[in-house]
Design a protein that fits this description.
This protein is an alpha+beta fold. It folds into 2 domains: 65 residues, no CATH class; 41 residues, no CATH class. Helices cover 31% and strands 10% of the residues. The protein has 3 helices and 3 strands. The longest helix has 16 residues. It is globular, with a radius of gyration of 17 Å.
């Protein structure tokens, strides 16, 4: 198993840091964080074989995601373009849970 002590500095903070950007402890294992990082980096690769592997890895990670949800509970007042109602979003797969149901169109 990989530990924070064995992750080189060349990997970003999100792979190594026990806290997320909002200061909450991230329970996701370092190994899994590293897999998310590698899948994202490989997806932009010029080699089609590596891009295919990245897509397969990404599909696996999304289907087995151990969500770490960030709360986005405030909204712009008055609501305007680019403002989303209160929600929670996963740090890894970016799935969204709406706090008060799905958003309503502005208009």
């Amino acid at each position: 198993m990989t530990t924070d002590a064995t992750i080189p500095e060349l990997f970003p903070r999100g792979v190594r840091d026990p806290l997320c950007s909002q200061g909450h402890v991230v329970e996701t294992s370092t190994d899994r964080r590293l897999l998310w990082h590698l899948a994202r980096r490989m997806s932009g690769c010029g080699d089609p074989h590596l891009r295919g592997q990245a897509q397969a890895l990404s599909d696996y990670l999304h289907s087995t995601c151990e969500h770490h949800l960030h709360d986005w509970l405030t909204c712009c007042e008055p609501r305007g373009e680019g403002c989303y109602p209160p929600h929670r979003q996963c740090l890894w797969c970016h799935s969204v849970e709406w706090v008060d149901g799905p958003p309503v169109e502005i208009g």
